[in-house]
Design brief:
With 185 residues, the chain is mainly α. The protein has one domain. It has helices spanning 40-52, 72-128, 133-149, 151-175, and strands at residues 11-18, 58-65, 179-183. Helix 2 (72-128) packs antiparallel against helix 4. The termini are close together.
Amino acid sequence: MNAALAVPAGCTPIAIRVDEPRQLFDSMDPAPFRERDLDPRADEYITETARELPAATQPALIVHLATGGLDRVVAGEVAISVQQYYARRAATVRRSLRELFRTGRISLVIGVVFVAFAIAFGDWLAATIVNERYAKLAQESLVIGAWVALWRPIEIFLYDWWPIRAEARRYERLATMPVLLSSEP
């Protein structure tokens, strides 16, 4: 591998410079090399740079190594390790999204049941205490409280899931990005 690498057509390069390939990975992670997590600083740099790219842009990671004599086996292992790391991150975020939707569904059922109960109880209360003004106040308070009970599921289904889905898509793009290593003499 030489210092001048051609970035694949249609890819936007994300360049990172390290002394040796091991510096890309978390030294505290006891997992085998292919399953090791990226170093938190390297991961943050790569993901933040990818975040700034347009969504339709495919990034390509260019790793500039200060050591010479890079062998193709190491280059292949680094590429596979980086791609598997981001594939695991994408799967984790997708699980989080599924869990959020599950929470939303449960919250929605609880909220709808509470709305039905609050409206029925408010109507019963208003019918039971006909001549008192506070009965209408209690009835309206129950209806307002019931709609507040639907706040969280509405928030989940309208707003909360968008950024999580965008993060999963970003990690999926990073999981498929070409990883090229360049050794500098």
